[in-house]
Amino acid sequence: MTLDKLKPDDDRIQHLYTTVRRKQYYYALGTPPSPPKDTILLVHGFPDLGFGWRYQVPFLMNQGYQVIVPDSLGFGKTDAPKEPRHYSFKSVGDDLMELVRQIVPTGKIILGGHDWGGTLVCRMALWHRESVKAVFAIGIPYTPFSTEYLEPEVIVASGWQPYLGYQVQFRGSEVERKIQGRDGLSLFFSAMFCGTDPYGELGFSLDRGLLFDRLAALKRPTILDKDEFEFYVNEYNRHGMHGALNWYRNKVFNFMEEKSLADSGDFRVEVPTLVIEPTGDGPLDPEAHTGRGGQFSKLTIRQVASTHWALIEAPEEVNSHITEFLEKL
């Protein structure tokens, strides 16, 4: 059976805009046929859009949930400020909570995130404790706050975490300079969505980032159909790469805004939390989430066989794990 998914501009959801904290956000609003059980905010990562949740939105609506799915700051139809300070987790989290409160003025909501979105929603559960009922994160989830600031360049050069080399590349100017216009974005998405060259080689690696010498030979990735691929290219062509890459340039602002919690040690996520780990997503280690200072009070860990793109490569398994988690709340 083919799993239901949204298409670009799908008329089963409302396509809306709002202004929060002087920034315009686009978001999709999905409403179930009967009064909703709960409201879920779904936050995407990089390089993605709210459309990345296309297999989850109709499923959750059919399960009786109202879903709010924005394009995050810097992506798609949402504004893309130039300054990295606007992209700190706290700033974007405050934006998104204000957006939610325009739709659901009171009560607690459920947060779901993928990649950067997973990191963000776990932090929103701390910054907005009175408003969050539960959290689920796919891929990169919560990492503890730090009392010491280290640039990714220093971490990679030390040999401690060489797999952060791609972040060093993304923080610089090379990607933004070389990936421009529809042609450049087509090469970029072919690499990031696991397209391969005639020899089966990828155009991206965690330790180096985009492998520019391979990009021209990459085939269109098989995990996106033609319309989906063109949609990503067109949406990123609105702003170019600068805003999206600012998510990798926000670290010093994150550190400054999170230091008070880091110093106090008060960064344990108390609400029920589900972490779904893709087994093929680089160095992610499910064991880490139970071992780093007891970051979660009520943690459930599940795995799916996929790359970084679990939402579209393993949607049935992801949806099943989310449903199991939500039914126990």
Automatic annotation (TrEMBL):
Keyword Phosphoprotein applies: no
Keyword annotations of the record: Hydrolase
One GO MF term: hydrolase activity
Pfam families according to UniProt: Abhydrolase_1
Domain AB hydrolase-1 residues, every copy: 39-315
Source species, domain of life: Eukaryota
Family: Belongs to the AB hydrolase superfamily. Epoxide hydrolase family.
Protein name: Epoxide hydrolase
Source organism of the structure: Fusarium albosuccineum
